[in-house]
Write a structure and sequence with these properties.
Blueprint lengths: L7 E2 L5 H11 L4 E6 L3 E7 L6 E8 L5 H16 L10 E6 L8 E2 L12 E2 H9 L3 E5 H12 L8 E6 L3 E7 L2 E3 L29 H5 L1 H13 L5 H6 L6 H9 L3 H25 L3 E5 L1 H16 L12 E4 L6 H12 L1
Helix pairs in contact: 4-11, 8-10, 9-10
This protein binds zinc ion.
The site of zinc ion (ZN) has 5 residues, from loops.
Amino acid sequence: MAKGDGGSKKKSQSKASKKSKKDRRGDGPVVGVDVGGTKVLARLIDPETGEADGWAKASTPKTGLDDLFNTVEEVIDELLDGRSSMKDVSAVGIGVPGPVDGDGLVFKCPNINGWDQPIQLAEVMGDRLGVDVVVSNDVNCGAVAEHRVGAGKGADSLLAVFVGTGVGGGLVLDGKLVVGARGMVGEIGHMTVEPGGRPCGCGGTGHLECYAGRAGIDREVRRRTEAGASPFLLDLVGSSPIKSRHIQAGVEAEDPLTVELVDEAVHALAQAIGNAASLLDIPVVVLGGGIVDRLGQKFLDDITGSPRFGGFGPDITRLVLAERLDDAGAIGAALLAGED
Ligand SMILES: [Zn+2]
């Protein structure tokens, strides 16, 4: 998954006006919006306690960016309806599924129709909403949510790993989101786990997400079924993509191909997570995403028990299930905006 800066902000405002705005609005609630490929979800949080209040959502329009930005505004209006007015809101955080630079410039979002060119989103939405807007990558937002108010609450440092179509990650070290010089910190999905192994969408080979991500598993199921492996999964989905629920069904039915591929995912995750945790001295790794949600604690126990767990092994690192499921992106975006 593409990564970006963890907390970039509209820069066009002068320092003085920003300060006066903060003085005026400093105590107000913060809105967090998660702009995803299928839905736009907004939540309102108290920046002091991190407590969330209310939510609103809409389908992501397929008809261009103007309609998308209108939808973001409408979802925020619906969220605030009867609770607060926009003038009380101290900041808005927006998480997007693409790389973001240090000035709130979103390069592209491949999962959103029409977003194939750079957009200065912090500025565009700041002008539309009349409030400070902070834009972050959605995976980093999820990591921040888990660290501040989720499964990693209380930990100094954590690595969050989200296993979905691909595998994304976000890193909090000593309480701070780390994004790196090029916004690529946390890209655990592209760590090599099998030299010369399965081809990756990034152009490399043998990367973690080819083994643990749904797209990689899907490709491998089709290849192995064609070569004579169990047709259980393809009988379920035909030419449609394999979803996490199908993988769960295959595990429950003890389908040999599913069990083999989930085993390979477990070992790949164990190798990458163990190595990353040892390099960075990470006490807690939070795992989330569709496959993890479906396979649950047993999946984590299998990873911890894998002989391929890298580095110093699982003794120095606890694996926990993510707690903020659907709203992690919105909550994390709001928390980052509130802290900025
Ligand atoms: Zn890759």
